[in-house]
Amino acid sequence: MSIEIDILNGDAAWPIAQPLLSAVWGRGAAEKPSWSHVKWAHADLRVLIETPEDGLVCHVGIYFRTITWNGQKAHVGGIGGVCTREDRRGRGYATMAIDAAVHTMRANEAVRFAILFCEPHNVAFYEARKWRAFTGDIYCEQPEGRARFTDLAPYLFDIVRAPTLGIIDLCGLPW
Ligand SMILES: CC(C)(COP(=O)(O)OP(=O)(O)OC[C@H]1O[C@@H](n2cnc3c(N)ncnc32)[C@H](O)[C@@H]1OP(=O)(O)O)[C@@H](O)C(=O)NCCC(=O)NCCS
């Protein structure tokens, strides 16, 4: 079976990604998540995995941002919106798409580390892929102003080196 992995501009690829994201998290989703009030950033790039038989089966959004860690600026990559079509899970698609996202970040020499935010039930998935818990505090922007972000757990991945402690300010909307 052939698969195609594309990395496209985030806004341009939104119409392609949107039906899959809606199926996983939209109104049709089984439960409203606890973080449904959060205003999210839009992905800069999107990894899309498609097969000739099924079309789009997996999506990962990629974000680039200059954040601060303990007040020092650092350029980081983010991933978000990681999802695989429900009936096509367990085939390695998300692993492949995350690898493609990390590869894309590595190609950007300024990126020091990668950040994602996940629900407790997905922690084991990311820990098995060498993402590590960040035990410090995360701040971000929301429409009402700067706020501490506690809705999801931060996990970091070494590109050069990721911190485990301290204060990260995302300097913008979360992803
Ligand atoms: C999590 C998700 C993206 C995985 O997609 P996938 O394409 O099935 O992932 P892969 O095929 O690459 O990896 C599957 C492996 O991860 C494991 N896995 C999947 N979800 C897991 C979880 N929540 N915790 C621990 N392991 C998990 C599977 O058991 C499988 O293990 P195996 O390879 O030993 O059989 C998919 O289940 C999904 O879309 N979930 C809903 C959306 C979501 O929660 N996204 C994460 C947002 S942070």
What does this structure look like?
This protein has a single domain, classed as Gcn5-related N-acetyltransferase (GNAT) (Aminopeptidase), CATH 3.40.630. It is an alpha+beta fold. Strands 1, 2, 3, 4, 5, 6, 7, 8, 9 and 10 form a ten-stranded mixed beta sheet that branches. It has three helices and ten strands, in the order E-H-E-E-E-H-E-H-E-E-E-E-E.
The CATH topology corresponds to Aminopeptidase
What is the overall number of helices? 3
What about the largest sheet? 10 strands, mixed
Number of strands: 10
* N→C terminal distance: 32 Å
What percentage of amino acids are in beta strands?
A: 35-45%
Q: Order of helices and strands, N to C?
A: EHEEEHEHEEEEE
Mean pLDDT: 96
Structural class: alpha+beta
Shape: globular
Integer-rounded radius of gyration: 16 Å
Count of discrete structural domains: 1
**What's the name of the CATH homologous superfamily?**
Gcn5-related N-acetyltransferase (GNAT)
